[in-house]
Amino acid sequence: MADKSTKHDLVIIGAGPGGYVAAIRASQLGMNVGLIEKEPVMGGTCLRVGCIPSKALLESSELYWKAGKGLEKHGVSFEGLQLDLEKMMDRKRGVVQTLAKGIEGLIRKNKITRYEGTGKILAPGKVEISLNDGKSEEVQADRIIIATGSTPTRLPGIEPDGDRIGTSTEALEYDKVPEHLVLIGAGAIGLELGSVWNRLGAKVTVLEYLDRILPGMDAELARLAMRIFQNQGLEFHLNTKVVGASANKKGCRVELAGADPIECDRVLVAVGRVPFTDGLGLEDVGIRTEKGRILVDEDFRTSVDGIYAIGDVIPGPMLAHKAEEDGVACVEKMASGYGHVDYGLVPAIVYTSPEVASVGKTQEQLEDEDIPFRKGIFPFAANGRALAGDHADGRVKILAHAETDRVLGVHIIGHAAGELIAEAAAAMTFGASSEDIARTCHAHPTLAETLKEAALAVDKRAIHS
After folding, report:
1. Is residue 128 within 8 Å of 117, Cβ to Cβ?
2. 29 within some domain
């Protein structure tokens, strides 16, 4: 029996990017909102053990690498360079804490009721909360949103031990630089964390089951990215199946199908993520799922009236910004009947150095769908701002419809690609043609000029290449 019961207009289970953003927008729209989160820190995986801490370490590790190897050509050199890993980790934690306090302030500002505990749906409009202090509370609501996010995928034959064999969570907290780190999976998460520890001095071996890295991104740019990462010191083994891993006090042993085992210090398993829906009571309530994901309609409604789902638990890319867009659209549909997310224009970014960013269709998708297209490519090496900043690696690739010239996909590898892709996403949202981008005045010298030149290159009239 619950200790007490409270009524809200909307109850949201999960305070990650989707959940807390949905809560804020719902409050702005006049709803009385209850937000359930078991972790003391709101912000979800993204803030606690994902997007934000990894970016903090990427920034710090790149500065360390540049100080040791990348600044001599600029006339800057150091003697006695040292790594203080503990201080680097403290800075990372400080960034997380600052942002966490910001979210707490936003929740208070918007008069959202915060419940620190685990939610279980008992019936439409009724949620039981097992509070972290051992008590329980039952809340009622006209509507419920499930926004519980995702968790790392487990690989058969490998059981993380929270130390030597771990996921991205453990890789963000190593207390010393591994001599040899084996990374299983060549997707965004793995390559970002592999880059961090490679820069700090670890030997990094990447094992990938597929015949390429960065599955889902443009293959041409993925091949270029792999060459760049190899030059940085990462070692890749493609078409490689990992069948097991074990650890002892001295190190780890990774077993491979048809190849000799690999001895190393630590193993990082980064083979993707799966929806986290444990303990929600989905089956008891009758919510339909498929391959672990909650099925929803265009209004984010599940198969049970009054219950909605957003973010990583529903189909679509598992990205924080996609979850935020889901959350806003979901509550706006509740309030006004209108809300929209264009899932064809969700940018994807890999925060390595250089960054890799993509929005829209890849060349492979266009070919598979028999969509006629023209391609424009422009190299960073021909851009004045890139050369001045020592960022010559990379290129911009624009794919436009062969008949209408409408931009169908933009793919960038290069410095600040994650920022540059925003212009492409905005242009494509408004149905821009490559001619539209080409005729837009871009300031000089800027990296953004690479987009203009790539757009010109679609019509074979780039100026600087």
Report:
1. no
2. yes
Question: Inter-axis angle of helices 85-109 and 51-65, to 10 degrees?
Answer: 150
Instruction: Of 427, 416, 363, give the one whose Cα is nearest residue 222.
Output: 363
Q: Are 180 and 203 in contact (CB under 8 A)?
A: yes
**Residues of the domain holding 43:** 5-56+87-152+274-344
Number of domains in the chain: 3
CA distance 401 to 435: 12
Catalytic option among 340, 391, 442, 444: 444
Question: Residue 77 half-sphere exposure, CB side, CA atoms within 13 Å?
Answer: 4
Which among 321, 396, 298 has a CA at the least distance from the CA of 355? 396
What pTM did the predictor assign? 0.96
- Are the CB atoms for 248 and 392 separated by under 8 Å? no
Closest residue by Cα to residue 224 from 380, 10, 56: 380
d(CA 4, CA 245): 48
The pLDDT, as a whole number, for residue 2 is: 47
Query: Dihedral, CA atoms, 380, 385, 388, 394, nearest 10 degrees?
Result: -20
The DSSP letter of residue 433 is B
Q: Are residues 267 and 279 in the same domain?
A: no
Question: What is the rounded average pLDDT for all residues in the chain?
Answer: 97
Q: What is the pLDDT of residues 193-250, one digit of tens each?
A: 999 999 999 999 999 999 999 999 999 999 999 999 999 999 999 999 999 999 998 8
Please state, in angstroms and rounded to a whole number, the distance separating the CA atoms of residues 142 and 139.
Answer: 10
Strand ranges (DSSP E) for 171-281? 180-184, 203-207, 235-237, 242-247, 252-256, 259-264, 266-269, 273-275
Q: 271, 300, 330 — which closes off a domain?
A: 271
Phi, psi of 31 (to 5 degrees): -85, 150
Alpha helices in 29-84 (DSSP H): 44-49, 51-65
| Catalytic (active site) residue 442 | no
CB-CB contact of 358 with 217 (8 Å) = yes
Query: Which of 246, 271, 296 lies at the terminal end of a domain, its last residue?
Result: 271
- Residue 375: is it exposed, middle or buried by C-beta count within 10 angstroms (0-12/13-18/19+)? middle
Q: Smallest Cα–Cα separation from 41: which of 24, 55, 57, 20?
A: 20
Domain CATH code at residue 148: 3.50.50.60
